[in-house]
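Reopening: structure tokens for the 2-phosphoglycolic acid complex, inputs below.
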Amino acid sequence: MTARSPIVGGNWKMNTDRAGAVALARAVAAGVRPLAGVQTVVFPPFVYLSEVAAALAQSGGGASLGAQDCYHAEKGAFTGEISVGMLKDCGAAWVLAGHSERRHVMHEGDDLVNLKLRAALHAGLSVILCVGEKLEQRLTGQTDTVNERQVRLGLRSVEPSELARIVIAYEPVWAIGTGKTATPQDAQDAHRHIRSVVADMFGTPAANALRIQYGGSVTAANAQGLMAQPDIDGALVGGASLKADEFTAICAAAANAR
Ligand code: PGA
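Re-run output (same inputs, fresh job):
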């Protein structure tokens, strides 16, 4: 099996303030610096990206910087939107595409998610494509169908050479921010199916090299069991990423699982 190095993202969502974001970035950078073999990315709100970039650089660069969203147009009359060029200008190397809150609170569809993902790749950024089923879809046996559709449409027209800059985050919507986590086995089953879809699209070697994170109420307490699964290559963490100690413990669990 291909050895995949785990990656853990901290999605701060619409939390922190200017001073809090800088302090959290410094604490995360210090916490993850001694950890070998795990990549760490933090996703602060847009307005704090530059300051967090500076804080991470001053802290020795142990963690990378990402943005929570982007818009696919280069520039122009798109009030309130942020281009990928602007994100790069602020120091971001990563961007999330299709987070469940973008899909279900802001009503973004798969076509828009795909446009954003491709714009980010085109600009040289790396992308975490988020997919996952809602509770009623799981209860009616549609988990694999929903994930497959979101993966196929999300990755439509992506070049094979670009896949190395993509990570998929499997985040069941019912597990996000609810304290309900998928069991390690349920998560593993979904991850294995997602990897098989990517294998069908891009071939088995590329699919085996692709990192697939689990997200949805990941904590220091449940990370170890999730990270032990063969197709789980890290975590995308919301609530627990706002506490540097807990986030560091999740990063350590991902590092130790390999
Ligand atoms: P949560 O969020 O860890 O708070 O459930 C995860 C996410 O939305 O990425």
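Strands lie at 7-11, 39-43, 64-67, 94-97, 126-131, 166-170, 211-215, 234-237. Residues 213 and 234 are 5 Å apart (CA to CA). Marking as resolved unless the reporter disagrees.
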